[in-house]
Design a protein that fits this description.
With 271 residues, the chain is an alpha/beta fold. 39% of the residues lie in helices and 14% in strands. The protein has nine helices and six strands; from the N terminus they run ααβαβααβαααβββα. Strands 3-2-4-1-5-6 form a six-stranded parallel β-sheet.
Length: 271
Amino acid sequence: MLAATAFAGCAALSSGSTATPGTDVPVARRITALLPADALLLGEQHDAPEHHAIEREAVQALAERGQLAALALEMAEEGRSTAHVAASASEAQVQAALDWNDKAWPWASYGPAVMAAVRAGVPVVGANLQRAHMKDAMADVSLDAQLNTKAYAAQQDAVREGHCQMLPESQIVPMTRIQVGRDRAMAQAVVKARQPGKTVLLIAGAGHVVRTLGVPQHLPDDVKVVTVRMLAAPSLANVVVGEYDSTWQTPPLPEKDYCAELRRPAKASAQ
């Protein structure tokens, strides 16, 4: 269910901005305006091609300055890394090092950013909670205390919306723990990869980089973090100030009801 609702789940949290540069501003200049930072978190809409292009440009901009400490990815599990892969490695070798799941995360979308880092000699690290650990996370009551009461309630609401109100209420707490566990794992990956004077770039769904709920909540106070929401929408009418440090608006995608697609098989099976 989590994979099936990846787009809807991130969309449920996709709001917030304090600064929005025009689409004609080069990505390198946008990056410069946000630095220095120990960690730069780019929150994407997974099916927005423009976002993947921006991610590649962000990698190149930081790498060309010698400022990219690592590229961390929601799209690969913690423990996976290209640290021991040569800069000249083939894409197949890189995918093997990251145990890449092309069905969940099309390589055609993410490969350009990943390979830009590899070619620059910068490690690419998996940051997501290992699938093998998700069952344990569902039963881990300590995850309930990782956020304050207001943020935890908001995270539960996001899980409901992200699963199109189709989850039984009994599953809300276990699934919220997975979400919190994933955010904590990504934060730990960022901390492990940080280097003085450089920036760790994390690519994740927009919901994971919300300041009040996501990865930033699990980073130590001494980590200077900047969050960016990439928004493929016609307006910023629904943005909430404070959830992200900056919002980069990109050309809107055609409206798509992800929940309708999920409900269709449920209705069919009930007939």
